[in-house]
Amino acid sequence: MKAIYLEAIGKPFTLIDRQKPEAGPGEVLVQVKAAALNHRDMWIQYGKYFTKEYPAILGSDCAGVVAALGEGVDSNWLGQEVVVDPGTGWGDNPRVHAPGYKILGMPEDGAFAEYVKVPAANLYQKPLHLTFEEAAALPLAGVTAYRALFTKCGLQPGERVLVTGIGGGVALFAAQFAIAGGAEVWVTSGTDEKIALAKDLGVTGGINYKSADWGKELKGQAKGFDVIIDSAGGEGFVQLVKLAKPGGRIGIYGGTTGMIGALNPAEIFWKQLAIHGSTMGTAQDFADMMRLVAEKEIRPVVDIVFPLEKTEEAMRYMEAGKQFGKIVVKVGG
After folding, report:
1. I need a surface site. Which of 93, 208, 267, 289 has the fewest CB within 10 A?
2. What is the rounded CA–CA span in Å between residue 101 and residue 217?
3. Kind plus residue range of the DSSP H or E element containing 293
4. What is the pLDDT of residue 150?
5. Residue 2 contacts by C-beta under 8 Å, 6 or more apart in sequence?
6. Residue 88's beta-bridge partner residues?
7. How far is residue 187's CA from residue 199's CA, in Å, rounded to a whole number?
8. Phi and psi at residue 36, in whole multiples of 5°?
9. What CATH number labels 2-138+300-330?
10. Where in the chain are the domains?
């Protein structure tokens, strides 16, 4: 089979021929139709991820067709169109993953290949309204957004939500899921164009965080937020605390702008705020996310599709940060 290979830290992704894996007991072999990129893949390429086992075949997100079954797997799965939950070994505590939690695509071979071996327990039927490319965009970003928004922050219908950094996969899913959940959604972005695109998806309004006093301006427009979903941290987080309503919840799943600035504790305790760290999700989070997507017929936003052999080019496109939606590689014809 053809696969995308990362030889070592700092090396480019290259196309190789590799022996097709075989499904063991409780496993299936999925013929990958499409796989999506995550920043995780880029961090691994640069040696900035906590797991460092090279060489590797990366790729955590995929959709495809079940091509072979291992011992003990229900025969009804054969030939089914599926989405794969990339997480294994979460453990018994739904509040936090166990030390042995793993994500597909290091240390196990991932989805940037024509075939991938996964546990049958991680299979979900591909929603009928989605293409393979759209379905491949769901797993990591979708479950991360769902957990932060619903499991951690407990979003309720009618609440007002702010999603920062719209354009990235998780942020877009958070906005789409919140709208589907009956919330009024606002966004921030560094470009007016992305805010306009978000409004086309049903977002109520937004603010360019590069403008002076963006926090005060946004509070004047929206009057505060019940739930805020953030991936940046940094100095801007101080503004998010100010923007949160009394009793508000802030979910943070990333830290792209670094250390959080000088927070006034009184703004947190006097408003009774809750700040939740969140990343990835449990099998239940994933199942609930897939159910929401199917029931509300939510379509993931796909920015661009590359052929598998151009995965390195796709990575550099992601690194440039201009995308609005997920970047996908198509596998095969």
Report:
1. 93
2. 42
3. helix 283-296
4. 98
5. 15, 16, 17, 18, 113, 114, 308, 309
6. 102
7. 9
8. -115, 150
9. 3.90.180.10
10. 2-138+300-330, 143-277
Q: What is the pLDDT of residues 146-161, one digit of tens each?
A: 999 999 999 999 999 9
Residues 6+ apart with CB under 8 A from 165: 171, 188, 189, 190, 230, 231, 232, 256
List the structure tokens of 112.
């940037």
What contacts 24+ positions apart, CB below 8 Å, involve 307-315? Answer: 308/2, 308/4, 308/15, 308/35, 308/112, 308/114, 308/332, 309/2, 309/15, 311/4, 311/13, 311/15, 311/37, 311/112, 312/12, 312/13, 312/14, 314/37, 315/13, 315/37, 315/41, 315/42, 315/45
pLDDT at 63: 98
What does the block give as tokens for 120?
């049958």
Residue 52 and residue 323: Cα distance in Å, rounded?
A: 27
User: Which residue is it, tokens 């996908």?
Assistant: 328
SS3 of residue 123 by DSSP:
strand
Give the H/E segment covering residue 236.
helix 236-243
Residue range 190-213, pLDDT digits in tens: 999 999 999 999 999 999 999 989
Domain 143-277 class?
A: alpha beta
| Sole residue written with tokens 């390429």 | 45
- d(C-alpha 257, C-alpha 280), whole Å: 20
Burial (CB < 10 A; 0-12, 13-18, 19+), residue 82, is buried
Q: Which residues contact residue 33 at a Cβ distance below 8 angstroms, ignoring those fewer than 6 apart?
A: 62, 63, 64, 65, 132, 136, 330, 331, 332
